[in-house]
């Protein structure tokens, strides 16, 4: 497990030397998050002696709490924090821009819908008001005409009443006179005068045509009242419909609030998933770069191992005692020994030239591999595949040539050792005891260096393998997060569409309710004065009709006629 730790060194002894330790501060979880280490835990670590006291390091501990690897934590921490900071700042800016855009778009859409609905409502309202005004104007003209006719009838009835009252008074006077002179008797001339007077009274009494016209006016008023009643019923229906719309508005408003809350929750989950996806992608990029660095280091260690192996082969003494018999060389004629030495020198020169040519070719092949590696680090994604294939081919050629040179180098070293042994015997027989070797290369044991390089290679290979496993887990996590983000995005878009649709319905209902309430108010303002005028006219006409129906003038005239007939002799 990977830990963030602080290097501590304890001083002890006379010279102040002490052991190195690391204090564990935080550990990395499987999801790449960091948690603080509870309490204080200190782990001995000899590798920490290479770091200063108080330095922050990344420590890889095994299950037994032993340090497997230490590295400085400054640069990785800075990179991780910078990456997190950039991701958070970018996400914050995008969130603010999206929120501003949403608010602006929502406000513009609401304002445009409101204006369109207001214009449509006003247009329909004006059209309906115009039609209703035309109907009401026609009814007003009818009402005005009825009022004029009623006023004429009232004046006519009033005039008839006055005439009738005068005639009745005259008739009463005649009656008194008749009663006084009854004992004297009435002649035919007086009876005729009384009959003419009765006929005059009869003509002045309102006729049936007036009553018929009054009845017709009352019928027209009843018809108009039926029309007004229909308007009042329509007004009540509109009020009932408005109440239903308000209830529907409240229900849709509650559903919209629930849908909007669900959308906000889905938006929050989506933002969290996007944030985690960005973090995982940043960690993946960082670990991929680190994996490339490890591969490069592993390759350099491999090259160093081969180079040190080649040097070790060249500086290690070769045992040729089995191939060269010193006793035979000492007993051989010196001329023959000199010829053998000459032949060995010529053969060594030829082989040395061949090996040098091969070494030069190997050097050029190595330069070609390094150039391709440089191109690969600077190339784009489109050229990377082609360069990687070419680099693999060139590296295979380099490996094959290097393996071929291993045997040739060993053969050349054996030839040098054999020539060296012959020269040693020859110079000894010639009496020369101060001679030098053919090669000035020192004899050095490089096996410990090779072992150390092999240990580094193994560590880098294990670290690379572990890192590749982590990369595979992170990639799987990213694929899962991407799938989750896609599904959440689709769900969030669906929920947004739902609450926007509900919001449009709310605006439409609000405009419809406002329009209906305006119509109701306008209808009440127009219908109520008409109803009051209509009721007043109807009451006046009914009073006139009741007066005509309740009049006893006709009955009185009929009684006078009967009295006159009784007075006239048979």
Structure description:
The protein has 570 residues and is an alpha+beta fold. The chain is 79% helix and 7% strand. The protein has a 5-stranded antiparallel sheet with strand order 3-2-1-4-5. The longest helix has 108 residues. The chain is rod-shaped.
Strand order, biggest sheet?
3-2-1-4-5
Helix content: over 70%
Tally of alpha and pi helices: 8
For the termini, the CA-CA separation is: 151 Å
Number of strands: 5
Radius of gyration: 63 Å
The topology string of helices and strands comes to EEEEEHHHHHHHH
What's the overall average pLDDT, rounded?
76
β-strand amount: 5-15%
Reported for the largest beta sheet, the result is: 5 strands, antiparallel
Going by helix content, strand content and strand pairing, the class is: alpha+beta
Summarize the structure.
The chain has 570 residues and is of the alpha+beta class. The protein has helices at residues 74-180, 188-204, 208-315, 326-331, 334-378, 381-429, 447-549, 553-567; strands spanning 2-9, 20-28, 34-44, 56-61, 67-72.
What's the structural blueprint in terms of helices and strands?
Blueprint: E1 2-9, E2 20-28, E3 34-44, E4 56-61, E5 67-72, H1 74-180, H2 188-204, H3 208-315, H4 326-331, H5 334-378, H6 381-429, H7 447-549, H8 553-567
Antiparallel strand pairs: 1-2, 1-4, 2-3, 4-5
What would the keywords be for this entry?
five-stranded antiparallel β-sheet, 7% strand, 570 residues, 5 strands, 8 helices, single chain
């Amino acid at each position: 497990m990977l830990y963030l730790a602080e290097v501590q060194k304890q001083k002890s002894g006379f010279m102040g030397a002490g052991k190195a330790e690391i204090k564990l501060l935080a550990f990395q979880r499987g999801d790449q998050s960091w948690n603080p280490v509870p309490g204080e835990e200190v782990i001995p670590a000899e590798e920490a002696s290479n770091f200063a006291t108080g330095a922050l390091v990344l420590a890889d501990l095994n299950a037994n709490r032993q340090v497997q690897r230490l590295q400085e934590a400054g640069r990785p921490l800075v990179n991780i924090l910078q990456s997190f900071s950039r991701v958070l700042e970018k996400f914050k800016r995008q969130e603010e821009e999206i929120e501003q855009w949403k608010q602006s778009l929502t406000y513009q859409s609401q304002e445009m819908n409101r204006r369109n609905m207001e214009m449509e409502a006003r247009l329909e309202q004006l059209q309906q008001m115009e039609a209703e005004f035309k109907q009401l104007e026609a009814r007003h003209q009818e009402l005005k005409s009825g009022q004029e006719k009623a006023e004429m009838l009232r004046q006519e009835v009033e005039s008839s009443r006055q005439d009738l009252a005068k005639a009745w008074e005259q008739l009463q006077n005649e009656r008194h006179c008749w009663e006084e002179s009854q004992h004297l008797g009435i002649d035919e001339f007086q009876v005729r005068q009384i009959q003419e007077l009765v006929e005059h009274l009869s003509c002045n009494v309102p006729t049936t045509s007036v009553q018929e016209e009054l009845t017709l006016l009352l019928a027209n008023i009843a018809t108009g009242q039926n029309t007004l009643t229909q308007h009042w019923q329509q007004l009540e229906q509109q009020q009932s419909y408005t109440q239903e719309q308000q209830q529907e508005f409240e229900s849709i408003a509650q559903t919209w609030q629930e849908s909007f809350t669900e959308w906000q929750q889905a938006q929050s989950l989506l933002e969290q998933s996007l944030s985690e996806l960005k973090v995982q992608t940043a960690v993946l990029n960082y670990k991929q770069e680190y994996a490339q660095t490890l591969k490069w280091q592993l390759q350099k260690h491999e090259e160093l191992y081969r180079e040190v192996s080649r040097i070790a082969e060249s500086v290690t003494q070769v045992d040729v005692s089995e191939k060269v018999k010193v006793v035979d060389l000492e007993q051989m004629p010196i001329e023959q020994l000199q010829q053998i030495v000459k032949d060995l020198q010529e053969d060594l020169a030829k082989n040395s030239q061949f090996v040098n040519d091969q070494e030069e070719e190997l050097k050029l092949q190595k330069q070609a591999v390094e150039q391709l590696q440089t191109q690969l680090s600077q190339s784009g994604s489109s050229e990377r595949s082609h360069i990687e294939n070419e680099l693999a081919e060139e590296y295979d050629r380099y490996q094959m040539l290097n393996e071929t040179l291993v045997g040739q180098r060993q053969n050349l070293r054996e030839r040098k050792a054999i020539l060296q042994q012959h020269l040693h015997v020859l110079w000894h027989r010639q009496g020369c005891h101060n001679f030098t070797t053919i090669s000035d290369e020192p004899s050095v044991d490089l096996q410990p260096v090779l072992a150390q390089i092999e240990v580094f290679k193994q560590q880098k290979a294990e670290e690379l393998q572990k890192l590749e496993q982590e990369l595979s887990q992170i990639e799987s996590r990213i694929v899962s997060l991407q799938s989750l983000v896609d599904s959440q995005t689709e769900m969030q878009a669906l929920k947004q569409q739902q609450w926007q649709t509900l919001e449009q319905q709310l605006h439409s209902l609000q405009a419809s309710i406002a329009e209906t309430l305006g119509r109701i108010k306008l209808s009440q303002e127009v219908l109520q004065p008409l109803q009051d005028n209509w009721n007043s006219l109807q009451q006046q006409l009914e009073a006139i009709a009741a007066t005509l129906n309740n009049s006893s003038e006709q009955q009185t005239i009929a009684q006078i006629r009967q009295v006159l007939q009784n007075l006239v002799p048979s």
